[in-house]
């Protein structure tokens, strides 16, 4: 694909087994340790180290401790404003989710290509975002049925629905409810994929135009490069926003399960 | 698009490693460490609100003490003013009495002196009469050689003195 100087913007999403683990398997399922898995492990380790720095428990916190406490306080406020006091028990899950996605997005944006390593954003794979979305959805279902039993189905019939509309509305609401895990997982996957493709396409413009002629390199190439700088900043914002949206929607859905409506 | 092209070979590995890493994050970081950080935050919040309450209580106590002090101050001020007024009245009364006594004494002294002056001037007057009568008899004797009676001389002197 990369022949004749062409740059394939999709190659960055290719998953490659590392360390010769191609045929590692459990029960017939391949579990090769891939570049994607490496970034998942890195994300988990970075998050772990980040939170360790906040464990000093000082009454007057240092910068690092303050940063960790601020992130946890942010998730706590998010849950309290969306779910109420009952939302506090979901802080460990939503914090893990938010920070895991946030760090995955940001680690994937690191300009490691400069030192010859290929950064990988596993949140640009719907196999990964789908699992996270299904986990959130499963928690919503589990909490909903455990707390409200079959009464949970009243979620699909809003208050004040005319009797004639109950059955059609029930199905409409059911569909919109069932679509949630897909929209949750796809949103993150699409946002990450689109951003990285755009950056890679612009980078291709810079390289190919500079290779074509100095004039093109100075015009198209430098314009693309300037655009890349702005879009890189935008991508960092998107990385934060998508993590926030994932956590926000999860807490909104948890609110449905906790309080019906 | 590798996400779709590779899905058959990679989905199991992706799911497995995501569950392993996110499971580590959730159980070790989320359940193990986040509550401890939150406990620190809660302890700090508790300490801050406790300190604020203590400060508020101390403020209230200070206000109370100040009010008490003010009340005591006003009370003692009033008492002092009453004492001053009383002392002033007493002093005025005492000085009045002293003045009256001194006045009486002065009046007495003046009266006595006036009486003495009157007695002295009376005595001097009668002496002048006697001397004038004697002088008149001597004059009469020298001029007319007639001995005038003492009574006549005295009457004449009296009349002359009365006429000034």
From TrEMBL, chain B:
Subcellular location: Cell membrane; Endomembrane system
Membrane topology of this protein: Single-pass membrane protein
Keywords associated with the record: ATP synthesis, Cell membrane, CF(0), Hydrogen ion transport, Ion transport, Membrane, Transmembrane, Transmembrane helix, Transport
InterPro entries: ATP_synth_b/b'su_bac/chlpt, ATP_synthase_B_chain
Keyword Nucleotide-binding in record: no
Listed GO CC annotations: endomembrane system; plasma membrane; proton-transporting ATP synthase complex
Record-level Gene Ontology MF annotations: proton-transporting ATP synthase activity, rotational mechanism; proton-transporting ATPase activity, rotational mechanism
Function: F(1)F(0) ATP synthase produces ATP from ADP in the presence of a proton or sodium gradient. F-type ATPases consist of two structural domains, F(1) containing the extramembraneous catalytic core and F(0) containing the membrane proton channel, linked together by a central stalk and a peripheral stalk. During catalysis, ATP synthesis in the catalytic domain of F(1) is coupled via a rotary mechanism of the central stalk subunits to proton translocation. Component of the F(0) channel, it forms part of the peripheral stalk, linking F(1) to F(0). The b'-subunit is a diverged and duplicated form of b found in plants and photosynthetic bacteria.
Name of the protein: ATP synthase subunit b
Source species of the chain: Sphingobium fontiphilum
Phylogenetic lineage: Bacteria, Pseudomonadati, Pseudomonadota, Alphaproteobacteria, Sphingomonadales
């Amino acid at each position: 694909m990369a022949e004749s100087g062409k740059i394939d913007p999709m190659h960055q999403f290719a998953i490659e087994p590392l360390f010769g683990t191609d045929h590692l398997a459990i029960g017939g399922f391949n579990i090769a340790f891939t570049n994607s898995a490496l970034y998942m492990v890195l994300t988990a380790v970075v998050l772990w180290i980040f939170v360790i720095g906040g464990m000093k428990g000082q009454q007057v916190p240092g910068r690092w401790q303050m940063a960790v406490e601020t992130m946890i306080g942010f998730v706590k406020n998010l849950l309290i404003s969306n779910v109420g006091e009952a939302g506090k028990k979901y802080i460990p899950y939503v914090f893990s989710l938010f920070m895991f996605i946030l760090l995955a997005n940001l680690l994937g944006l690191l300009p490691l290509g400069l030192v010859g390593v290929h950064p990988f954003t596993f949140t640009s794979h719907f196999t990964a975002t789908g699992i996270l979305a299904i986990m959130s959805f499963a928690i919503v279902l589990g909490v909903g049925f455990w707390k409200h039993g079959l009464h949970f189905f009243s979620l699909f019939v809003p208050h004040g629905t005319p009797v004639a509309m109950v059955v059609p509305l029930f199905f409409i609401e059911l569909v919109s409810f069932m679509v949630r895990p897909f929209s949750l997982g796809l949103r993150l996957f699409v946002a990450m994929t689109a951003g990285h493709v755009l950056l890679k396409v612009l980078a291709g413009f810079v390289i190919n135009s500079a290779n074509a002629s100095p004039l093109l390199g100075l015009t198209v190439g430098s314009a693309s490069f300037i655009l890349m700088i702005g879009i890189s900043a935008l991508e960092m914002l998107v990385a934060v926003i998508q993590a926030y949206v994932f956590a926000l929607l999860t807490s909104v859905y948890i609110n449905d399960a906790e309080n019906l409506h | 698009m590798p996400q779709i092209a590779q899905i058959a070979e990679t989905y199991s590995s992706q799911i497995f490693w995501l569950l392993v890493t996110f499971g580590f994050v959730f159980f070790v970081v989320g359940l193990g460490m986040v509550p401890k950080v939150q406990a620190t935050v809660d302890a700090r919040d508790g300490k801050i609100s406790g300190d604020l309450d203590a400060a508020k209580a101390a403020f209230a106590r200070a206000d109370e003490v100040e009010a008490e002090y003010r009340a005591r101050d006003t009370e003692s001020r009033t008492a002092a003013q009453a004492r001053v007024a009383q002392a002033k009245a007493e002093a005025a009364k005492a000085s009045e009495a002293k003045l009256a006594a001194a006045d009486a004494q002065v009046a007495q002294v003046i009266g006595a002196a006036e009486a003495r002056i009157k007695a002295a001037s009376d005595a001097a007057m009668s002496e002048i009469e006697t001397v004038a009568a004697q002088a008149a008899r001597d004059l009469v004797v020298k001029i007319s050689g007639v001995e005038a009676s003492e009574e006549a001389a005295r009457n004449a002197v009296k009349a002359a003195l009365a006429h000034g």
